[in-house]
UniProtKB/TrEMBL annotation:
This is Synaptosomal-associated protein 47. Keywords: Coiled coil, Repeat. Belongs to the SVAP1 family. Residues 338-380 are annotated as: Disordered. InterPro entries: PH-like_dom_sf, T_SNARE_dom. Residues 131-167 form the T-SNARE coiled-coil homology domain. The lineage of its organism: Eukaryota, Metazoa, Chordata, Craniata, Vertebrata. It comes from Felis catus. Residues 343-356 have a biased composition (Polar residues). The keyword Repeat applies.
Length: 380
């Protein structure tokens, strides 16, 4: 059995209930477990799987120190305090991995009723968020329909104004025929404005995963998602609002710290760079796709394992299939074939490295006789 990959480590203190004291050390999170090792003995004092957790809360010890409490199935409670860089950052990452682990095993029956209730509450919350997103999308379509209706009313008013002008003008007026041709132009304009939002459509989404996002400091994190498109990357917050979009040519480097942690950066001259740090339990699904699109900009730091080498985690096995899916999608896009995510069968254009002129065409161009540089002065 291979060694578990450490996702993140936080310096903190753990409360030993038997000794009634706080022990400094480090809290380590893997994809399946949570461990604490003391600084003095350098040994693991407590370790428990994420699947055995029934609750994770933010509490205060002695009403002063901010702490994170973890409750196991046997009602054993663990206290972690003095978390660095902040309690909220550690809580967001731990809760994200715990939630993804519970949602990834819907068929496995949980013996504890509290675990079933928590899973049901999470599924209900996710369903409500999806319903809210659909309602907001429907309201946006209604606003677009109202805008198109107002544009049509304005064009009808213009037509009525021209008709009244035609009726009021005398029969011998020479420009009366042009007034009858104007409504067709307004109709074309209205058709163009109506078809423009439909022509844009949505880009084909290769993969979308939930993630914990931090932009500048590690202490300020928030839940969100990473969307990998054929033409770039998009980072959204928990309310599906767009935080930032990276075009393919805008991404300067992508660093893989662990199979579950990456950072994306866009460099600038004369102003700060735009960089985002993302941690996700489903990151092994996105890393193969990122390697296909940004092969020359990917950098693996330290002992970060590739998704294919992490055989114990189920998301890693999905990463291999995602590699082939991403490769096929990129090949279809390069050869101008319609992909499943594009609307109306329109091909997605990508930059290719094929030359514009072949060697045979270049040889033919060299054989064409050139015109004389100094034409004759006296033509007649």
């Amino acid at each position: 059995m291979s060694r578990e990959v450490c996702v993140h480590t936080w310096p903190c203190s753990y409360y030993l209930e038997l000794d009634k004291r706080w022990v400094p050390g480090k809290l380590s999170l893997t994809s399946c477990s949570l461990k604490f090792a003391g600084d003095e003995a350098q040994e693991t004092l407590v370790s428990f799987p994420l699947s055995g957790i029934t609750a994770i809360k933010k509490e205060a010890s002695h009403f002063v120190f901010s702490s994170i409490t973890v409750l196991e199935k046997d009602n054993r409670k663990h206290w972690f305090s003095s978390l660095q860089p902040s309690r909220n950052a550690a809580f967001s990452v731990i809760e994200h991995f715990w939630r993804e682990l519970l949602l990834s095993q819907p068929e496995a029956p949980l013996p504890a009723t509290k675990g079933k209730e928590l899973t049901g509450l999470m599924a209900c919350s996710q369903k409500r968020l999806e319903d809210t997103a659909r309602v907001l999308h429907h309201q946006g379509e209604q606003l677009d329909s109202i805008t198109r209706g107002l544009d049509k009313m304005e064009s009808d008013l213009d037509v009525a104004d021209r008709l009244l002008t035609e009726l009021e003008s005398p029969s011998w007026w020479p420009f009366s025929s042009k007034l009858w041709k104007m409504p067709s132009e307004t109709k074309l304009k209205g058709d163009a404005s109506t078809a423009s939002p439909k022509a844009l459509g949505k880009e084909g989404v290769v993969v979308r995963i939930p993630a914990v996002v931090s932009q500048r400091t590690a202490s300020h994190v928030k839940p969100g998602s990473l969307t990998v498109l054929v033409s770039g990357l998009e980072i959204h917050d928990s309310s599906s609002a767009l935080m930032h979009r990276f075009e393919r040519e805008d991404v300067d480097d992508i660093k893989v710290h662990t199979p579950y942690e990456i950072s994306i950066r866009q460099r600038f001259i004369g102003k700060p760079d735009i960089a985002y740090h993302l941690i996700s339990a489903r990151m092994p699904e996105a890393i193969p796709v990122l390697e296909v699109q940004f092969s020359k900009k990917m950098e693996v730091l330290g002992d970060a394992l590739t998704p294919s080498s992490t055989k114990t985690s189920s998301p890693a096995e999905k990463g291999c299939s995602m590699w082939h899916t991403a490769s096929g999608l990129m090949d279809r896009a390069v050869h101008h074939e319609p992909c499943p995510g594009s609307q109306d069968g329109q091909p997605l254009q990508l930059q290719t490295t094929q030359p514009f002129i072949s060697e045979g065409d270049a040889q033919e161009l060299r054989q064409v006789p050139t015109a004389p540089r100094n034409p004759p002065e006296n033509l007649f």
